[in-house]
Design goal:
Largest sheet: 2 strands, antiparallel
Strand order of the largest sheet: 1-2
Radius of gyration: 22 Å
Helix content: over 70%
Order of helices and strands: HHHHHHEHHHHHEHHH
Length: 336
């Protein structure tokens, strides 16, 4: 396009040398914002909260924000792996409920049995998702939508639509939802996920499949195994989040996690991971989850914003982030 413009008008050749560096600088700036925009936004929101609300920066409030969002953070981490492969998992909210109900039902047999049962049940259902996507070649949206409905129905049917109380003597299980434990579990999960994506063969395969599945097959990668692994991991992390929620509430609730799949996708997208796959990471998702959590905390501190208007603001915020990301990505590709 530049060559055509240069031959069309005499003045273009004199302007071209100055325009090209300017475009490259703009592309570099756009790339910088695209990579670190979530962190910049998180710091800005925290600064605003600290200035406007005296109680925001208190240790109690900040720890509460981390605890409240630890469960969504775990679900979003599993979603990150799935989205990096170019897939989607709409069943995570229902799998969270399954994990919590199974763990609560097994709590009389000890914390280890409860955790293993809850995580295992959700991971098994996630594996079913992956198997159908990989082997039957059905779109992930349809497969996981079907699992979302089926798993929720199974949780409601198995419990008679009633909450399953955690055994009163299961003090070890109850501790999973209290104090610093949810935060520690979140940090360990994200550190492990970040290291897996950055340093392991499985992580490289995840990016390769999301970038170009056909090219990954031609390279000899076992794409089906990668798909199975990511959906099983997504289910396992959703189950772990359900266990923490059951420990916090003292009961496994079959209606828990309703709508969490959308919040998890929002955290992943806000963090900068592309829904088309192949670009993003665990660290960016953690920042996205924290940004959403802090923003919603500010809504609550404001007090005058009703829950319904909070939903409107959340939707507008997510749409705005996606629009900005798309424009930045287009500028990087066009001028970079």
């Amino acid at each position: 396009m530049t060559t055509t413009s240069a031959t069309a008008t005499p003045a273009a050749p004199r302007g071209t040398p100055a325009a090209a560096p300017s475009a490259r600088r703009g592309a570099r700036a756009a790339a910088l914002v695209q990579r670190h925009g979530t962190l910049i936004a998180l710091l800005a929101v925290c600064a605003f909260g600290a200035i406007r609300y005296p109680e925001f920066a208190t240790p109690e409030n900040l720890l509460n924000v981390l605890r409240q969002n630890s469960m969504l953070g775990l679900v979003a981490l599993g979603m990150t792996f799935v989205i990096l492969t170019g897939g989607i998992d709409l069943s995570v909210g229902s799998l969270l409920a399954v994990g919590g109900v199974v763990a609560a039902r097994l709590s009389p047999y000890g914390t280890l049995a409860a955790v293993a049962g809850g995580v295992g049940a959700a991971a098994a259902l996630g594996l079913v998702n992956g198997a159908v996507v990989a082997k039957a070649r059905i779109q992930p949206f349809i497969v996981t939508l079907a699992m979302m409905i089926a798993a929720r129905g199974a949780a409601l049917g198995a419990t008679g639509e009633q909450s399953v109380r955690v055994d009163a003597g299961a003090t070890g299980f109850a501790a999973l939802g209290r104090g610093y434990t949810p935060i520690v579990l979140l940090v360990v999960a994200y550190a492990t996920g970040w290291a897996a994506l950055r340093y392991t063969r499985f992580g490289r395969y995840v990016f390769a499949v999301g970038d170009n599945e056909e090219a990954a097959k031609l390279m000899g990668l076992k794409v089906d195994r990668v798909t199975l692994g990511t959906y099983a991991l997504s289910g396992a992390l959703a189950g772990l989040a359900g266990i923490i929620l059951a420990a916090r509430l003292g009961a496994g609730q079959p209606v828990a996690g309703t709508g969490w799949e959308l919040d998890a996708i929002a955290a992943v997208v806000v963090g900068g991971t592309l829904l088309t796959g192949g670009q993003g990471g665990a660290g960016s998702t953690l920042l996205g989850a924290l940004l959403l959590g802090v923003t919603f905390n500010l809504f609550n501190l404001e007090g005058s914003i009703t829950p319904w208007w909070q939903w409107v603001l959340r939707g507008g915020f997510l749409l705005g982030v996606v629009v900005v990301q798309n424009r930045l990505q287009g500028k990087v590709r066009r001028d970079g």
